[in-house]
Amino acid sequence: MKRFSLLRQTGIMFILTLVLAVATGGSADAAGNELTIKGSTTVLPVAQVMAEVFMDRNPDVDISVQGGGSGVGIASLLDGTTDIADSSRKIKDKEIAKAEEKGMTPHEIVIAMDGIAVIVHPSNILSYLSKEQIKAIYTGKVSNWAEIGGEDRKIVVVSRDTSSGTFEAFENLALDKEKVRPDALTTASNQAVVMTVASSPNAIGYAGLGYLTDKVKPLRVDEVECTRETILSGAYPLSRPLFMYTKGEPEGGTKLFIDFILSEEGQKLVDEEGFVGLK
Amino acid sequence: MIRFRERLYKWIFAVLAFASLVFLVGIVLTLLIHALPALIQLNLTQFIFGHHWYPTYDPPEFGIFPLVVASILVTFGAMVVCVPIGIGSALYIHELAGHRQRTIIKPLIEILAGIPSIVFGFFGMVIVAPFIQRVFGIPIGLNAFTASVILGIMATPTVCSIAEDALSFVPASFREASLALGANRWQTLVKVVVPAAGSGISTSIILGMSRAVGETMTVLMVAGGAAMIPKSLFDPVRPMTATIAAEMGEAVMGSLHFQTLFAIGLILFLITLLFNVIAEMVSRRFRLKLGLGR
Fold first, then answer.
1. CATH number, domain A115-239
2. How many Å lie between the alpha carbon of A26 and the closest alpha carbon of chain B?
3. pTM check: above 0.90
4. CATH class of the domain defined by A6-113+241-272
5. Which residues pair with A276 in a beta bridge?
6. How are beta strands A203-208 and A156-160 bridged, if at all?
7. Which chain B residues contact residue A192 at CB under 8 A?
8. Matching CATH topology for A6-113+241-272 and A115-239?
């Protein structure tokens, strides 16, 4: 019988593992105070701070915050793997139709405003571009800074991957949905754009107001500076609201969390993250 | 009792051995199932030789030629970096380094293989790219050249380690015979040892190529990501792997874009498969020639 001990041990371990898995799985269901937030990388820092502060106040609530992009967030909301979807763009008609197919109405909440700043290297002599000029640069009609009043240098155009919410917002706000030139660099995050522009004197890029550092220079667009006031008033041409989407009207823990975000205290946190609070 | 146990173990290990085969078949089938609709729907010539990659526009354009060119370019660039370094260090470790040096250098080179690719990517983005930009006076450091250099460094341990193993498999009698005939160390190395280890060295190069062509994170961060056919080594490029990684998240499941990304994956798989088949064939032929039936 002794020689079977190894086999038996394995069997016991296996059963133990199973029991453990069932037990932990069960307890997770029982708690019910878990919230999942997923989506836009632009909204991510806000959602993260909100979740941290909220969890401090309500220790029995467990919030997990993930990125992935606006599209991923909304898709996850539709297939039920997240409670709240962060998005830096409005939900698409296609997505609403898909939700309705599943018998669900996505509920939209504007949680903050964001301005997309157009940035260049601090050594660039330009401090102003019109929306038309920005479009000309990004669609490939202009390739040298001299053509728009700068120094005689090739423009290095920095853009974002097509999966990014910032790209979609920029495409809508600045490019009227025209194609970005194929030789534009694409980067995976707002920080990467800022980093790339900060290291290249010839570059132009765009990023959320919250990501700017003093190593890049934001340009005035159509003579409007990119500040919180102009973004909040909508005077700045490249401004947009940031959204959270829930399945139907928020209720329970989700409602408490959303209420917290929209409270004065929550909106102050929005400001601290570099976005523009609604209050 | 003993016989039962033996049989049981045999079965357990057989299952384990076939498990990877099951995974392989599963992956290939998944790739095919998802990629086929796109390959049927798109004109194959336009897909492979089309110059414009605008998958999210209306109407979309799915030309992957710039992506294929980018992958080939950075892979061969990486080879230019990693073959001399990898094989050079293998020769040094095997032929010239003393025992103590060898026990230090080889593990160190193998540690290089264990560094996560994201670390290489970050290193390339923050340190190498700005450096290359300054040194060459080019507009932007995130380009095919930088990606090649970083990929080359990443593939070096693969090349070095396998090449060194191959050198150590050369029977001592070969070397002794050569030296006994009056050949000096250099002649022995170039005329006897390296040709005898030829199969392993070729394999090391081909596996290094597989490593470079399949690498994703680094090229995503360092290559610049512009989907155009590069005019020079210093243009930003968008290799196939980076395209899949950057776009799979947003592509709607089952859409043409989604299927096209799978088709790119299929092409990548075929390329690495080809590399592996060539590696296997080369090493077999050499073994036969040397009469090493291993």
1. 3.40.190.10
2. 30
3. no
4. alpha beta
5. A113
6. parallel
7. 125, 221
8. yes
